[in-house]
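Today's session is about reading a structure prediction critically. Students often jump straight to the picture, but the first step is always the sequence itself: look for stretches that repeat, for charged clusters, for runs of hydrophobic residues. Only then move on to the predicted structure, which in these notes is written as discrete structure tokens rather than atom positions. Here is the chain we will use throughout the hour.
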Amino acid sequence: MANITIRNLDDDIRTKLRIRAAERNRSMEEEVRVILRDAVAEVSATPRNLLELTRECFAPFGDVKLEIPHRGPMREPPDFS
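Below is the predicted structure for this chain, in token form.
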């Protein structure tokens, strides 16, 4: 198992963490492990693809309507004979 040290943690956060752990009958250390485990599980449980991420990022700007140009028939290939 790995160890982690968190420096410069605000006293207010430490107090809230201590209270939260006590409410759940856990040590502060166990409470932090549970919080981190849940946070990482949420991220890995929702795989995202580039299209979904792009739509989510640009949705607030509204739809963009692009005109699709008309395509004519293909030209004849060159004759190299």
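Discussion point for the tutorial: The mean pLDDT is 87.
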